[in-house]
Each structure stands twice: as C-alpha cells, then as structure tokens.
Write the structure tokens for this entry.
Amino acid sequence: MAMAWPTDFPGLGTGAARLAQRIEAMSGGRIRIRVFGAGELVPAYEVFDAVSRGTVDIGHSAAYYWRSKLPEAQWFGAVPFGMSVHEVNAWLYHGGGLELWQETYQPHNIVPFPAGNTGVQMGGFFKNEINSLEDFRGLRMRIPGLGGEVFRRIGGSPANLPGGELFTALQTGAIDAVEWVGPYNDLAFGLHRAARFYYYPGWQEPAASLEALINAEAWASLPDDLKAIVRAATEVTNQDMLCEYMARNPAALKRLIEEHNIQVRPFPEPVLEALHQAADEVVAELAANSELSGRIHRSYREFQQLLAPYMEISEDAYAKVRKSLSA
Amino acid sequence: MAMAWPTDFPGLGTGAARLAQRIEAMSGGRIRIRVFGAGELVPAYEVFDAVSRGTVDIGHSAAYYWRSKLPEAQWFGAVPFGMSVHEVNAWLYHGGGLELWQETYQPHNIVPFPAGNTGVQMGGFFKNEINSLEDFRGLRMRIPGLGGEVFRRIGGSPANLPGGELFTALQTGAIDAVEWVGPYNDLAFGLHRAARFYYYPGWQEPAASLEALINAEAWASLPDDLKAIVRAATEVTNQDMLCEYMARNPAALKRLIEEHNIQVRPFPEPVLEALHQAADEVVAELAANSELSGRIHRSYREFQQLLAPYMEISEDAYAKVRKSLSA
C-alpha cells in the first residue's frame, strides 16, 4: 500500500495503517499488506498511477489530487460549499455516489472505495487578519483542488504543496496562509508557530473523503470472502477516521487557543459571499467538462437539495436548540 | 440472531439483516446466522435475557429497552439533550465509551457493540397542536426510556409500546402522541394517518445507538480472525444504517408534507426549556444511581463539553453558513 502521507501522520496515516491491519486480522493473514508512506515507494502525487499500473496493489489518498489527469475525480474528494460528511456518506453508500466514483476510475484500472473522512476542515492558518475581500487579493495560500480555483477567482494566488513542506513555506513567508486539515493535524505540523490567525469554517472542504484505491486486477483476483473483507475494512476505516478526528480535534483546538494564543476567527460574511459565488461558477464549469461530470453533478446536487430541508429540521435544528438552551 | 424489531423493518430490521449477511460473506460461510424478528423466537423486550442465557448467540436491539434491569444501559441508547451522532460515535470508538459499555454488560454475560444509529429522531406525531407547556399536561404519549421519564416530569403520561402496536393505539385514541423514529420509519407505520402534527427536534433521542449483543461464551469461542470479522461487521453496520436513514428520511419527509399534508412544527421554546430542565434532573439522578453510572456520566459529560466549542466552529458553523448563503 502506497500512501499520499507519512505512515505516522495523525488521522490520515494512522487511519490508513489501521486499514491494513484490519484486512490482515480479518483475513487471518491471507492478505498481508506492507504500508509505505509518501515518498518511500512512490511520491505522494503518483499514488494513482502506481495503483493504475499495478506497481502497488492498493493506495490511500485523496481524489482531488488527480485533478489534472482526471477532473471528474474532484467530485469525490471535496466540493466547496458542498455536502457535509453526514450527507456525502449517505450519497456515497445509499445515493449512487460510490457507483459513479467506480465508473469514473474504471478506465484507469482502479476500484476506489471511500476510506476515511476528516469532517469539515478549518479555513486555514493566516499570517494576517482577514477583514475584507481586499485582504484576499494577491494572498499566496496553500489551497489545492477546487478550493484553490475558487480562491484564485476572488484574487488569491493558490499553491499546492505536499504536507511536509507547509511549515517551512509558511514560516519563511513563501506563502501567507495554509489550509491543511484541522486542529489535530495542524497542531502536529506546528503551523501555529508560523501564523496566528485561524479561520473557520472550511468552506473549501466541508467533508474531505479519503480513498482506498485498489488495482483492478488485484481486486478481480480476490475470492468473494476476501472482497467482502477488503470492502468492509474500507467502510470501517471511513467511520473510524472521522471518529478519530472528532475525538482529537477538540483537545487540539483547546491547546492552540490556551497554550499557543491562537486567534480563532470566522471569515467575514462578504468574503464568504464572494467565495460562494465563485464556487458556483467553478462547480458549473466542472459539471460542463464532460458527459460523466455532468451526470455526477446532477446526482450530487439533487441529493444535496433533497437532503437540505431534512437536515434543517433534524441535525441542524438539534444543534441549534441545544446551543441556545445551554447558553 | 434475535432482533427487537421485525426482519423487514426499514433501517433497524434491514440494517440488522445486512449485519448477518456481512458476517457470513466475510467469514466465507464459517459463521452462518439465522435472523429472527421480534416475537419469532423471543419477544422484543427479552432479547437481552436470551443473549445473556445463551438461548441465542447474538441479538440486535437498543440499550434503553433494558432500563428496568440495568439502569446504566441507558447511557448507551439515547440521552435526552445529549450528544449528536457525530459526537457519540467519537465517544464510543475514540473516547472510552465502548469500554464502559462492555464493562456495564459484562456481569450479564454479554459483549455489546454499537451496530447502527438513526441520527437525531423526530419529536413525534401529535394528534393536536402543542402551543404551550399546558398542552403536554396529561398527554398520553408513547415515549420510552429516559425521554419518557423527562416527559413525565413536565406533566405528561408516558407509555412504552412495541412498534407493532403504535398505529392502532394512536388511531383509537388510546394515546395522543407517538415518538417512534423519523420520517423513514414513521411513514412506513402510517402514523400520519392517525395524527397530523409532526414535531422537531427529537430532544429525547438526539442519536439513538442500536446495539449488537453477543453472548460472552459464543464470543470467547471465536478465533481471532472471526472476532475481527464480527467486530468489523458491527462497525460497518453502525455507519451503514445511519447512511440509510440519512438517505431515506428526506424523501419520506417530502412525501409526508406533499402527499399527506402533514404539518411539520418546531416545539415551542418554553416547552423545550422545561424539557431541558427536567432532563438535567433525570440525568443527574441516573448518574447518582451507582458508582458505575457516575463514572459513565462523567466520561459522557466531559466528552460532550470538550467537543462543544469545536462543533460550534466546525460542523455547526458550516451548516449555518451554507444555509445563510443559499437563502
């Protein structure tokens, strides 16, 4: 298994390592998986190709990394102002999303499964305060995928750097801001030692799905019981990694605020409005990219629209009521 | 496997049936499970005892059903005004919750695992409008567990009836209101044909966890690979059932409103305030019930309190921003 992150990286790396352990344990050792971190076997951004060619049997990565070779993959990584993690998992497992994902990767000889989620991310660490849209003009920020393109449309200068380079780039001033993941990961990278302002919400990745990529021939060679085991292991990992983030982010946030004096701020409304408008354009352009992309977009949008009135009276209403009562 | 619901019951029954199928598929048939609905082998409310005695090897049920024999079980079913499903899963899998659950059931010869969640439920179907706290006085409502006790404290008259009896009881006027699950299940039971007002949010069950109960000797007899398979199957089921509810509730809600002219209403604020206050009392009394109960309560409360500031700037902030931007 080749990963797009270091093996000991909290959440992404540790979660993927547990995926491998689960498959071994459930198969009684009939499948053994050697886990390689980013760069150990192949670089982070070549995991897709390595699985496609069969250099490795399995990969763990994020779909938006394949943007340049496979634009449609972006629907399955993170969509700016798109579905939350409850919604996107329901779409993937019970709304036709996973079937579309597998159709998208099929010509590349890869069988994908959702295998982890960070939940909504943070908006990022910024060296300077953001008070208006003007403060985004010319800002150099590490922000990949569709989010990066949206950021570019409102005047920013997006960059995509692998995780390992973020701290130095931010500290030296090569970039002004970084959106990486959330408190659990950002604290581990020490981003707070290079920037003081921590913005929310993570409009760019409201539910970042991670993926297990399986080489199609390796998959076809498995008997039915091992197929069931591998699939189940990805599903367990999908839930477990989210739970790890939910359980570890709060304490990391507390430390960032109390020990490191980080200023946590909401993005100003006019900034969010401009980002939202630009996101609509970017998403519409992606949908127009191909017949398949249009089909995925319709499925995604219709599901999100169907869910909206229900979320409003269920999870969202409960969160609101509980907050107002405990105030 | 004995279930506390009919085998074909949407979500609860169909989800539990898939749990059995997953174990069979992953084990290559080394474990075969015969699935019995409520009343087929043992009545719904005797599943716990049947697993405890070893009459069946596995059960699928909800922890709050065991309230009278094991008050501590209630922490693992649903806690009024307690944690949401994101929060409770993080507590169970990464916050020590599952270990406490297993400690609680251990003297009863049962190994429990979370195995499904409905997400936040609806507040219930009511024959008449609720405009003030007065309208709750003397109201006869099907509402089990801690929620029922809270309802009693504010003047209501709670009843616990198995699912199969709800429609008739509501239609004949034996009861005035029913909280069962949410749109997907409530529509299937036809509750809308007996009552017109549908209230939210489901303060009584903000995240109802379902459980797989495994007889301790049956569990101990499994080799490690089958233990790993059974555990993973419960974890997959835990996520999958939630996704099924998230995917099916919205369309059911739409039908209730558009085809059946159901009136969807928020509970009035003074009613929620009174319920919240009564819930604090009921929860404190449960915590004082035993040393173990106090320990579970501290773990539950500390986890919820740690998560609150993070949820506010993450999932909840995103839901709020997205709603205001799309308005």
Notes: Chain A has a mean pLDDT of 96. Chain A touches chain B through 76 residues (CB under 8 Å).
